[in-house]
Amino acid sequence: MTSSFLESLPCTACHDIDLTEKRNKIASIASGFLFFTGWWFAIDASASNYPDTRDVFHLCGVFSALSMMMVNSVSNDQIRGEASTGGLCDGGIAAKIWFFFGFLMGFGALLGSAWILFGEYVFITDEAKKQFDPKTTYPGVAFFLQNLFIFASSVIYKFGRTEDLWG
User: For the whole model, what pTM was predicted?
Assistant: First the structure.
């Protein structure tokens, strides 16, 4: 995919770039940048608009970060069942369950942050305004972007790297 993208660029110098050896570095840097940016949004929302936020809104970001660790702690060989451990759940079943629940937690955190954005900041009923009445929607957008960026970071870190270079 990368080579076809580079070949479509008008400059001829881009045709000879080989990024296969740097794929892990690029994926790790992009993933780390997205993870950092996501948390930056959440911290900025709480620091600059604290009266318009609730502390419980940070839970989605925490679960998103846990999801990233769960998803990326399982190797592709374990998911395919090629890495035999000889344990109770041999054949990759435990790794697949762990991987599934990691992604499930990531999607849940992303959907939870969408609910926070729309349920608490965009579509506010009169009854809800009595308990929580934010003056701006920025914190809701920031919490959603936090979880979106952490989820994207998790996907890039898992599928953007190659494990055959590890040895």
Answer: 0.82
